[in-house]
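Sample entry (178 residues):
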Amino acid sequence: MALAVRAEIPISRVSTTMSNTPRRTSGLTARAGFTLAELMIVISTMAIVMAIAAPKITASMTQANVRSANVEMSRRIAMARQAAIRRGRATTFNMNAAHTKAWVNVTKNDGTTTLLADTLFLAVKYGVTATATVDQIAYDGRGFASLAADQTFAVTKGSVTRSVCVTAAGFILNGCTL
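Predicted structure, serialized as C-alpha cells:
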C-alpha cells in the first residue's frame, strides 16, 4: 500500500483565480487610473466636440435672451393696460431715454404715482438693446392708450430681433412689423 504525501501551500501564496498554479507577484503593484495617452485622447475628443457645438450653443443662447426680453417687455406693457382696467386709474409703461430699462407706474387717487413692478433692466438681465418709437404709453382707466399712431418696441442682440407693437388704441401685437 502506497502512502500519499500531501504538500501544503501557504494561503497567502495561493492565487484566488480558477487556476491551480500559484500566482507570482512581482515587485511592481498595479495602480488604478488612466495613462497620459488615454487622458489626452479624451481631452482632444472633448475639444473637437466643443468646437463644433459652441457656435450653435451661442446662437441658441442669443435667441433665448432676445425671446425672453421680448416676452418680458410685452408682459410689462400688458401689465400697464391690465392695471388700468382693473383699478380704473391711469397707468403708464415707461422706458428711459436710452431704452435700457422699463417700468410701470400707477396713478393713485391723490395724483401721485407708484411703481407697479420692479424695474426691468434689459441690458443687464438679457444683454440686449431695445429700440422704441415712443418712451411712454399712457393708459386711461378703461385700458385705452392715447397714442397718435401704432408704436413698435424692438429687442435686438447681434442679428436677432423681435418686436412688440402697440396699436393706437393700446392693444398689444407680438412679432409684428408696423
